[in-house]
Design brief:
Length: about 190
């Protein structure tokens, strides 16, 4: 027997990131202490304002072994120093779990980092682009544009979010503006 239509279908707004009936998580600048390379610039900005950085509206139709969850993320534009606004980033608790990101509006990048080798990649995330995030890959979204970046993420229901491993050692690389364009730079080479 099929579930109710409300479990089979949802309608999202690609501009606002809203989905009716979704579970919403919001993160403000103050929630991202330790994420940005330039800690002094972070504290100076936070002393003046604590804006909403991003929200994720998640739909969780089921929690069985084969189920999927999905959500729409909306990340605001801006920078701390020359580092673009970003999401906390995470590994999946179930490390093998991959994820699909689909760009909706705005211009951004996904920062991917292999958990074992530390190999890092900057992958464009804009409208009509699909990014495949393999398992065992830390992933973070970055808004490199001037308007909100929105995207859909689809992942196994049992993937889970492990923020702790990233909070402890952070991503090896950062995405910063260099001569007006996004560049992938090693964190240790960014002045803080
Ligand atoms: Fe994920």
């Amino acid at each position: 027997m099929l579930p109710e239509l409300s479990s089979l279908l949802s309608r999202f707004d690609p501009i606002t990131g809203d989905i009716a009936g979704a579970k919403i998580v919001q993160r403000r600048l103050g929630d991202l202490r330790g994420c940005f390379a330039d800690a002094a610039a972070f504290e100076a900005t936070l002393a003046r304002k604590n804006p909403l950085l991003y929200s994720v509206a998640a739909i969780e139709p089921g929690s069985g072994a084969g189920d999927l969850h999905y959500g729409v993320g909306r990340l605001m534009p801006g920078r701390i120093g020359n580092e673009y606004f970003l999401t906390k980033g995470h590994l999946h608790s179930w490390r093998e779990a991959a994820e699909i990101y689909i760009g909706l509006t705005g211009e951004g990048m996904m920062l991917l980092e292999d958990e074992v080798s530390g190999d890092s990649r900057m992958v464009p995330l804009t409208a009509n682009q699909v990014v495949y995030v393999p398992g065992r890959t830390a992933h973070r979204t970055v808004n490199t544009g001037t308007v909100p970046l929105t995207y859909i993420g689809i992942y196994p229901a049992r993937a889970g979010h492990d923020y702790g491993a990233i909070a402890e050692k952070n991503f090896r690389c950062v995405i910063v503006e260099v001569n007006g364009a996004p560049a992938l730079v090693e964190r240790r080479n960014v002045v803080s």
